[in-house]
Amino acid sequence: MSPFGDPRVPEALGHLPDYLGNHVRVSLAALLLGLIVSLPLAILTRRHPLMRGALLAFASVVQTVPGLALLALFYPLLLAASALTLAWLGFSFSAFGFLPAMLALALYSMLPVLRNSITALNGIDAGLKEAAQGVGMTERQSLFMIELPLALPVIMAGIRTAAVWVIGTATLSTPIGQTSLGNYIFAGLQTQNWVFVLFGCVASAVLALAVDQLLGLIENGLRRRSRVRTALGGIGLAALLAATLVPSMARPVSSYAVGAKTFTEQYVLSALISDRLRDSGLAATTRAGLGSSVIFEALAASDVDVYVDYSGTLWANQFHHSDVRPREELLKELQRLLAKQDITLLGEIGFENAYALVMPRKRAEALGIRSIADLAARAPGLSIAGDYEFFSRPEWIGLRQAYGLSFRAQRQMQPDFMYAAVASGEVDVIAGYTSDGLIAKYDLVVLDDPRHAIPPYDAVLLLAPRRKDDERLKAALEPLLGRIDIATMREANLRASGNDATSSPDAVARWLWERIGKR
């Protein structure tokens, strides 16, 4: 079957208006903000070498910060600022999604605009400035009537560079809740949907090239003093922005935001929740690919309405408890702690997705390893891999303290790739998930935890503070409670790890509902 006959292509196209529209809006807003800040700064510092050097140094340092790190940094900063404005001024604002993405991307856009603006303004022939003064022009008149018009073509070249950088970096804004073309890439990587990955990469590249060409048309028009070219470029940009506003205007104003973290199971569960809401006559949108802390804070701030979390994650990471309690006691205490933040723990889904140390069955048997206690003696000669956050989580600290684990090497990988890596012998042990179907696929074994260093990880449904009295939402989600056992979830995860149309989160969610709906 040709790529264009793949059913995943229409699915990808169906997301395009939303993803592309949001990507264009946040990119253009960031570029505009960067220009509003950079151009005046360039004008003010062009004749002050010390200030100019400090400004360019700051902009250069910003460029050295990885894009994802810069985007992620703005979320907690804005969250703290929102809490302060609420305490001092009586109002708060959303620190989720658009605002942190726009501010971080605006910083990214500053260097080329600053550099080109300062270079262009300082490169104006001194004789022209003297001539302007000679005919009685003030410094302001000389700037706006002589210097800036002459510098505009070079400034536009800097804006073109900034635009390409911003559009490319905007794909990384998905983990902080900003919908973008990066949604294709993050979802595709997690679910091994390479059609989505390719679609996201191509769409982002085409958008960057289109904007670059339109800005190039404006630059060319300024250089040649062609009003037609300049106008055509401006009309093209305006048309692009207008086209992205149409889908957002058609979207329901009141919609439930369903959150999802950055691994396959979460994409499937968020698709299942969204389906249940729509079948109950409620509008739903998905905010997927969010980090553990980001998604919880977004729920607490009611930027996300509902998502599935895990009791062990909440216990260890959100409430910072290091003790491991019996399942029922832990759930009861969690419910109390969440209620203090007006977050509703609606109930358990029915399965547990715990962190676990996992090895190839044959290798474990050959080394005589059945438990983590057995592993501890062999660990100095072995390597371990975990997901992007595992080695900074309290669970890893607890495991090391309980068993004295010390591995020869530790590596971080995308979750789905870890299983293939351990199966092929690239690493010896991985921090896997007990509900993952890839454990059976690759004939891996979960090592026992006799000292109970890892807490229970029951999957639970959480509702945002503003939804605590929403009976329609609760009624729509009620059929999911206690209905998905571990075997069913493993099979769903295994289906989602495939590479065809039936493995998309939406398709697996439909299969999952058909399966549990018969019970």
Low-confidence stretches: none
Mean pLDDT: 87
Shape: elongated
CATH architecture of the largest domain: Orthogonal Bundle
How many strand elements?
A: 10
- The rounded Rg comes to 27 Å
Features:
alpha/beta, 62% helix, MetI-like fold, D-Maltodextrin-Binding Protein, domain 2, elongated, 519 residues
Description:
The protein has 21 helices and 10 strands. The protein is elongated and about 90 Å long. Helices cover 62% and strands 10% of the residues. The protein is α/β, with parallel strands linked by helices and 519 residues long. It has 3 domains: 8-250, MetI-like fold, CATH 1.10.3720.10; 257-352 and 459-492 and 512-516, D-Maltodextrin-Binding Protein, domain 2; 355-446, D-Maltodextrin-Binding Protein, domain 2 (3-Layer(aba) Sandwich), CATH 3.40.190.120. It starts with 7 loop residues before the first helix and ends with a helix. The chain has helices at residues 8-45, 49-64, 67-89, 98-122, 126-134, 139-169, 182-191, 194-224, 227-250, 264-279, 292-300, 311-318, 327-339, 361-367, 372-378, 394-403, 415-424, 438-441, 471-477, 486-496, 505-516, and strands at residues 256-259, 284-287, 306-310, 344-352, 355-360, 383-386, 409-412, 429-433, 444-446, 458-463. Helix 10 (264-279) links the parallel strand 1 (256-259) and strand 2. The longest helix has 38 residues, at 8-45. Helix 10 (264-279) packs across helix 21 (505-516) and helix 20 runs antiparallel to helix 21. The strands form 3 sheets. A 5-stranded mixed sheet has the order 7-6-8-5-9. Strands 3-10-4 form a 3-stranded antiparallel sheet, with helices on both faces. It has a two-stranded parallel ribbon with strand order 1-2.
